[in-house]
Amino acid sequence: MKNPRFTVSYACDGQDYTIYAAQNTHYVIEHEITERGVTARLLPRARLTLKRIDLTFDYDFKPEDLFFGNGYQAWTTTREYGRKDQMKGITKLAAPGFLHMLASTSGDARFVKTPKAPGEFYSHTYTYIKNRNDLLLIGSLTERQGFTVIYADMNKGTLTISKDVEGVTITEPYDLMDIAIERGGYDEVFDAYFKRMGLSAPRIRHMSGYTSWYNYFQKINEKIILRDLDALDRAKDSVSIFQVDDGYETFVGDWLDHNGERFPLGMDYIAKKIHEKGYMAGIWMAPFSVQRTSRTYKEHPDWVIRDRRGLPMLGVVAWGGAYTLDIYNDDARAYIKSFFNVVLNQWNYDMVKLDFLYSQCMEPRNNKSRGTIMCEAMEFLRECCGDKLILGCGVPLGAAFGYVDACRISCDVDLKFAGKIYNKLHVNNEVPSARNAINNAIFRRHLNGRAFCNDPDVFFLRYSNLEFNIEQKLLLAGVNHIFGDVLFVSDNAEEYANSDWAVLKKAFSESDLKVVSADYISDDRILVVLEDQGEEKTLHMDLSTGESNIKEILRFER
Fold first, then answer.
1. pLDDT of residue 422
2. Cβ-based neighbours of 480, under 8 Å, separated by 6 or more
3. What 3-state class would DSSP assign to 466?
4. Of the N and C termini of the chain, which has fewer Cβ atoms inside 10 Å?
5. What pLDDT score does 202 carry?
């Protein structure tokens, strides 16, 4: 990393500027660059409205170097890229306009442009450049001042650390960057990075159990939930948590409105029945979202975030569309606190799965950057939940570090292994995909046990409402077992054959395999080297078909 130079984009006195220097008449950037990291602070000499600040270095990429591209949020595609690879963005069919707006809702298109050529990549919060077994890790130690995006251009030989500070107006000194640099082996650099971040080990080490979403989606009721709860009795010693997902509420946002038709005895009764089994009770919420048809939105339209035209901002495409409660609105904030208090302290749920959290920071506001907003939102959620467990989902990961106990690290799986039409079109980098869930479980494995417990999403063993063959089922279950520590099925276990119970118990157990390395060997095939009690084993998989040798590696008995 040589020849550092700054690019500063801002406005002053109504005029836009892009300056290629660390100082001019409007500002000075104090900075220090060492082998262990980068710090930078901007001292304004006038009132400045910031947009983006880049620090670019020359970097000598070797032909075999791989660049790690960490996706924007929990669902976003994350993997290693070589010089000949090309990153994918939003489908070209979603041209600028309404379709592009819908496709980009959950992603980073508002402040990041997808590279157009092979050899050009970017990564959120942290990255590494891998040359065989040696890594150079570059990672932000905080996203509180603005999201960090690290760009690589292997063709030009440059690395750029970029801060998204759009929307921030300053007259006082502003901390820009606190970047760690580590060199060494895979585990070595990530141990050092998270140690420098000052994170404590996750409070939980492992969870396994059930979630209702992927069999019924919103069509759940008391009878279904209690039936599926009882159906797990044969694996009771392997289950620690049972989670009710979306569908118990009347409308998204109206969390406390009792849906008497679906749950006549109430959600506290469901928690009680789960506790009687000896499991933790989990429940899904999208705490910032209010469905457009919800009572909460109809009665309090002033509580939601509005766009630059003054219109309610669409934060979620699902459910016919949902807006986002503004955490800087005192009444909205009080409402969020109130429903958490009921769910956690009156209904007595032990864990909340909190979804679609990215919606809080889609645009800067209140003189705060997107990164600042997301960090303050996560801090607020932890305040609301106290000591109860949080499973984050749909959240920019860097902002979640230190606030969640567990976190999704992949997109949703799909009920069809090969994927649907939106997978073939590649609508965006967050669409449901079993293939992409497997990919992310492997390439975000370093977060597990360091930042939080990794949730690679569910696996399946059932026989109905599913388009997986047995090889695909075992691959997904095996990958989740090896690379994750939040293990969920979403099945009515009454359907299981006798042989399925052994697979379930094995998949639910803590893995004792050490991952030595994981690499793409073609567009579809991944090779993973494992260590099993001193013996080296090789797991190979084809993500296009689901074929693998996972059955032999894990000794799945069916």
1. 72
2. 441, 456, 457, 458, 459, 487, 507
3. coil
4. C
5. 97
Cβ-based neighbours of 546, under 8 Å, separated by 6 or more: 417, 434, 468, 469, 471, 472, 475, 476
How many other CB atoms are found less than 10 A from the CB of residue 464? 8
Q: E strands along 185-233, which residues? A: 207-211
Helices (H), 24-179: 98-103
Backbone angles phi and psi of 481, in degrees to 5: -60, -45
CA–CA dist 475, 503 (Å, integer): 11
Q: What is the pLDDT of residues 338-389, one digit of tens each?
A: 999 999 999 999 999 999 999 999 999 999 999 999 999 999 999 999 999 9
The 10s digit of each residue's pLDDT in 332-343 is: 999 999 999 999
**Rounded distance, CA 390 to CA 404, Å?**
5
**Distance between CA 219 and CA 265 in Å, rounded?**
17
Amino acid at 120: E
User: Strand 514-520's sheet: what is its strand order?
Assistant: 514-520, 525-532, 535-542
Which pLDDT belongs to residue 558? 64
Strand 174-184 relative to strand 134-140, pairing:
antiparallel
> ∠ at Cα 412 (221, 267), nearest 5°?
25
Task: Evaluate if residue 391 carries a pLDDT over 80.
Answer: yes
Distance CA 180, CA 93 (A): 39
**HSE-up (13 A, CA, CB side) for residue 149:** 24
pLDDT digits (tens, 9 = 90+) for 115-153: 999 999 999 999 999 999 999 999 999 999 999 999 999
Location of structure tokens 């997808």 = 114
Distance CA 259, CA 266 (A): 8
Q: 196: burial class by Cβ within 10 Å (0-12, 13-18, 19+)?
A: middle
Give the span between the Cα atoms of 557 and 419, in whole angstroms: 27
Q: Are 306 and 338 in contact (CB under 8 A)?
A: no
What is the chain's percent helix, strand, coil content, to nearest 5?
Answer: 25, 30, 40
Q: Rounded to whole angstroms, how far apart are CA atoms 358 and 305?
A: 13
Beta bridge partners of 79: 69
Q: Which of 370, 362, 539 is nearest to 445 (CA)?
A: 539
Helix (DSSP H) and strand (DSSP E) numbers for the chain: 14, 27
Please give the C-alpha separations between residue 532 and each of 188, 199, 514, 536, 538, in angstroms, as whole numbers: 20, 29, 7, 6, 10
Looking at the DSSP bridge assignments, the partners of residue 127 are 138
